[in-house]
C-alpha cells in the first residue's frame, strides 16, 4: 500500500507582537476579559514588508529544508488560506516560482477556513497516490489582521497572523492518513465576505470584515471536534492512547478543553499555543505541529491526530505519522 508520512515541518510568524494590553488600547477590553474567555494573551500581526504570502513562502522553505527534500522531488504544492494576498496568482503558484519547484507541480490554494490545512493534507495524499513525484508541500497561511473589524471587540481580539507547513512523502508501506471531513453550509455563524486583498486600511466603506457568532461557533466546535477525532481513531483502528500527540486547531482554549474531556484524553498530549498566537485559522494546526517537532515533543515514528474546524462550516481530521 502506498501511504504517506510527514518528513519535515516549518513555520513563520510575523515580527509584531500584540499583547492583550495592546488590544485594550485599541478597543474596549482587558487582558482579564480576553484571557479568561479564550486563553489568548498575545498574538502576532504582520508588520511592514510582511504578508500572508511572505509567511507562506518562508514556512514552506523551512519545511523543505527540514525534510531535506529537493524542489524536483515535489509534485504537489497546496496552500490552505482564505486571506490570500492576491486572488490570483495563487500563493501556491508563487511558492512554485520562488522555491524553484518544477513547472509540472500541481499548485492550488484551498479554502476551507480553519479546517483548510487538514483538507489540503487529504487532497495531497490523494494526488500522491497516483504516483509520479514522491513529495507534496502543504502550507497553511493567514493574514487575519487584514480582515478584522477593529470596532468589534468580540472578534478582533481573537485572531493572529502566521503560517505553517509540512512535507508529505509517499512510499509503499507508509500508512494512510485515515482522513475524515465534513461541511455544513452556514454564512451566519462565521464568515469573511468579499475579502479584498488590496483594501486600504483607511477605507472605512469597505465591508470586507470577518464576522462571527461566538456562541454558535462554540456549540458547533464542541460538537464536531470530538466526533471528528473519534471517527479518525475508528477509521485507523487505533485507540486514543495509541496516539502520541493531538494537534487541535487553536480557536479557543475552552473548546479544546471540552474536546479533551469528551474524548477522555491525557491533557499532556494536547498542548496548545493559543496563548501566544491567537487563532490563526488554517495556519493554526501546522504552526503548532512545527513547534512540537522543534521542541522534541514529536519525533520519528510518532503518530499525531490533526484536527481543524471553522467557517464554512467545515471540519476535518487525520492521523499522520512522522518519518
Would you write up a description of this structure?
The protein has 323 residues and is α/β, with parallel strands linked by helices. Helices cover 32% and strands 26% of the residues. It has ten helices and 13 strands. It has helices at 20-24, 31-38, 52-67, 91-98, 116-128, 153-156, 214-236, 253-263, 274-277, 284-294, and strands at residues 2-12, 16-19, 42-45, 74-80, 106-110, 135-143, 161-172, 180-186, 190-191, 211-212, 245-248, 303-310, 312-321. The protein has a five-stranded mixed sheet, with helices on both faces. Strands 8-13-12-11 form a four-stranded mixed sheet, sandwiched between helices. A two-stranded antiparallel sheet has the order 2-3. α3 packs across α4. It starts with a strand and ends with a strand. Mean pLDDT is 94; it is low at 195-206.
Amino acid at each position: 500500500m502506498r501511504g504517506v508520512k510527514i518528513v519535515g515541518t516549518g513555520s513563520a510568524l510575523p515580527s509584531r507582537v500584540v499583547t492583550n494590553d495592546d488590544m485594550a488600547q485599541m478597543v474596549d477590553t482587558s487582558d482579564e476579559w480576553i484571557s479568561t474567555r479564550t486563553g489568548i494573551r498575545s498574538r502576532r500581526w504582520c508588520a511592514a514588508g510582511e504578508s500572508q504570502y511572505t509567511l507562506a513562502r518562508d514556512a514552506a522553505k523551512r519545511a523543505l529544508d527540514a525534510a531535506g527534500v529537493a524542489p524536483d522531488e515535489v509534485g504537489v504544492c497546496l496552500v490552505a488560506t482564505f486571506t490570500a494576498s492576491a486572488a490570483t496568482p495563487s500563493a501556491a503558484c508563487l511558492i512554485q516560482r520562488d522555491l524553484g519547484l518544477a513547472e509540472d507541480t500541481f499548485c492550488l490554494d484551498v479554502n476551507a477556513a480553519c479546517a483548510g490545512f487538514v483538507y489540503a493534507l487529504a487532497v495531497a495524499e490523494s494526488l500522491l497516490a497516483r504516483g509520479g513525484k514522491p513529495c507534496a508541500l502543504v502550507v497553511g497561511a493567514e493574514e487575519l489582521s487584514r480582515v478584522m473589524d477593529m470596532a468589534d471587540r468580540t472578534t478582533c481580539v481573537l485572531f493572529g497572523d502566521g503560517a505553517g507547513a509540512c512535507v508529505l512523502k509517499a512510499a509503499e508501506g507508509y500508512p494512510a492518513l485515515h482522513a475524515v471531513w465534513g461541511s455544513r453550509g452556514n454564512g451566519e455563524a462565521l464568515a469573511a465576505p468579499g475579502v479584498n486583498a488590496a483594501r486600504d486600511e483607511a477605507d472605512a466603506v469597505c465591508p470586507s470584515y470577518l464576522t462571527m457568532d461566538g456562541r454558535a461557533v462554540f456549540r458547533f466546535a464542541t460538537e464536531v471536534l470530538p466526533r471528528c477525532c473519534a471517527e479518525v481513531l475508528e477509521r485507523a483502528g487505533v485507540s486514543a492512547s495509541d496516539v502520541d500527540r493531538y494537534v487541535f486547531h487553536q480557536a479557543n482554549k475552552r473548546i479544546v478543553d471540552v474536546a479533551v474531556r469528551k474524548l477522555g484524553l491525557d491533557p499532556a498530549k494536547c498542548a496548545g499555543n493559543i496563548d501566544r498566537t491567537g487563532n490563526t485559522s488554517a495556519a493554526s494546526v501546522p504552526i503548532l505541529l512545527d513547534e512540537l517537532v522543534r521542541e522534541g515533543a514529536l519525533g520519528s515514528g510518532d503518530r499525531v491526530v490533526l484536527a481543524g474546524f471553522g467557517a464554512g462550516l467545515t471540519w476535518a481530521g487525520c492521523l499522520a505519522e512522522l518519518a
